[in-house]
Amino acid sequence: MALRSSILVFLLLVSVLMKAQQQPSIIPKPVDLKMGNGYFTIDGNTAIQYKKSQKDLKATADFFASYIKNISGFSLKSNKAVAKKVEFVIEKDIQEEGYQLNVSPTAIVIKASSPKGIFYGIQSILQTLPAIRTNAALEVPVMQVNDYPRFKWRGMHLDVSRHFFGPEMIKEYIDLMASYKINVFHWHLVDDQGWRIEIKKYPKLTEIGAWRVDNINLNWRERPQAKEGEKPTYGGFYTQDQIKEIVKYAADRNITIVPEIEMPGHVASAIASYPQLSCTQQPQLPLTGGNYTNMSSNYCAGNEEVFSFLQDVLSEVLILFPSTYIHLGGDEVDKAPWKKCPRCQARMKAEGLKDEDELQSYFMKRMEKFIISNNRKMIGWDEILEGGLAPEAAVMSWRGEAGGIEAAKMKHNVVMTPGSPCYFDHYQAGPEGEPFAIGGFNTVKKVYDYEPIPKELNAEDEKYVLGAQGNVWTEFITTTEHLEYMVLPRMAALAEVIWSPKENKNWDNFNERLQYHFKGYGQKGLRYSPGNFTVNIKPSSQNGQLLINLYSEALNGEIRYTTDGTEPTLQSEKYEQPIAIKSSLVLKASTVVDGQIKGVQAAKQNFVMHKAIGSSVKYTNPVSEYYLADGPNSLTDGVRGGNATGKYWHGFSGNDMIATVDLGETKPIKNISLGFLQNYGSWIFLPQSVKFEVSTDGTVFTEIKTINNPIDINQKTVLYDFSAAFTQQKVRYIRVTAKNNLCPPGHSGAGKSGWLFVDEIIAD
Description:
The chain is α/β, with parallel strands linked by helices. It is built from 17 helices and 33 strands. Strands 8-9-14-15-16-17-18-19 form an 8-stranded parallel β-barrel, surrounded by 5 helices. A 7-stranded mixed β-sheet has the order 1-7-5-6-4-2-3, covered by helices on one side. Strand 17, helix 12 (402-409) and strand 18 (414-416) form a beta-alpha-beta unit. The N and C termini lie far apart (83 Å). Residues 1-20 have low confidence and may be disordered. InterPro entries: Beta_hexosaminidase_sua/sub (IPR025705), FA58C (IPR000421), Fn3_assoc_repeat (IPR026876), Galactose-bd-like_sf (IPR008979), GH (IPR017853), Glyco_hydro_20_cat (IPR015883), Hex-like_dom2 (IPR029018), HEX_bac_N (IPR015882).
């Protein structure tokens, strides 16, 4: 009996030690965390303590006490003499926003240089506790944490113009941000489809501009513009009192709200309210969707009333929002109306401006002067670089990182938010079985792998990168549940990118911690994406041999695949090493977790064999770093690019594409083709012409054929192969030259270089 009791005591001790050694699933991962043995238990005998002289800690103490009461019923008193305490201590020598957390069996002590750090220490504690009301003990594991953020700007954005979300949803969004130590809420309040902020001097902005005809039965991009006389069916706005309440709510959670008042474009809602602000001054209604035909969506840059109006609007905005930065938009301005407007042209002449880009720069610089005169700073999308950057403006880089790199080298502050991977309106899984999205594909892992400091910046310039931000545009996001699904768990992944040290990041470890958060989301009734189970099929080539690599993001997932076009089962081949492809085939692959096939359907890829498969490709002009596809040999990987501007396309901007393919040996060839994509809205156009040449030595090339583009450049989406058939020759080298096109008249980028998207060179 004594021996049995000793064994039971030993097993219990081992169990306790194992439990104590397990690190909590804190996201973002702290800089340094050391575990101890045992727990601090929060109960009715626990009190919050801080110096009474530090009155600014009261809001933080109240936040913590309210959270504990909601999940346990315990009412924690402040500054009462009890056996167990949660103590907040201000020590000035601790890094800004950082904290030191010490949990022992008898006390929790959080030290920081300000209430911000105390609040972040509290968030780490809360992530060890139940997510909802429970009768279980509130046990915080014994541990020591030293933690601080990597970046100052840790942001999330929300567009409430395309679809309106009420004050309670905004507070939920803020709570999610706070739980992950995100500190900037970029609130996109103004756009073509709705003006969402009350401006008392201009009541029509919300009486008219906040309401639109909403054809919910049609795709956003296909909704016809409303006609005069049609009654608005959708809308909403925030009163100034509601905004004040939300700003305070955010401030109590150490979140700064940066409002965006869009200008000089994307303002059809303002022009519908006050038509005299546009170049045409014609009456119109707010836009109903993505159809911009014959609509005014710009302020008139030659009209003085516009600047008076905007200064009045911003004067009210500045009172509501105490943020250092005010976002003035500046993106996607259709400058065609300015070219036709006598007042805009007169402004250009009077100010000595050479083109409409400089007119936009004049507009933004003038508004920046007003912002600076009110002791604030301007931030805008990277288009504000066009025509010259305002003297003190910060840049939010969304069209890739190029704008941010340029601005940082000019010693301007930058927030990195490139569409890939920081746009959370893009698909994160599937897309089969997923809620409809605007396009793109940004998985949780892709977000987690992001590095906000571009390699192009030196140590001095990288100091101007304030941080990064996730953006949520809501053309296709209409409900609270859909919004939650699109940000969870990508918000958590981005939070770790912008808080934790780069060297501390580890995808597998993050994925393990994320499972605990999934349970919390479910308990709270939040809708979230369980992850991307779609297998990533990635071709590569070595010495002329085509190899297929398969990847899955799923935790503890394995991959089963077939090469005969049938659906994978649990008995299908298990992926363990790259698959050699020697003939045309259809590969399908599925992720298996815990003995179950996950995902709606298997990933599928057709591989078409031809004589250039696996061949090396050299480009005279470099591929854009934002559209590298799967590497330099993507043109010969046997995979055709599709309608989406996704991973299989190589992109070129401003330069011709000149590609030389080495077949490795001379081969009999009688047909060569190269595929291109046209996507009018994305500035992607078929080339002006394509020239095919061949060679046996790589030095002397013979032209086979030059083909002029036969397709209308105004067609919206086109996949087209330029092909050259000829008398069979022995060929080792193939050179293809595609001349880049300009955006056509009537396009928002008219006269500027478009993009070339190319994929696959086929030789037979």
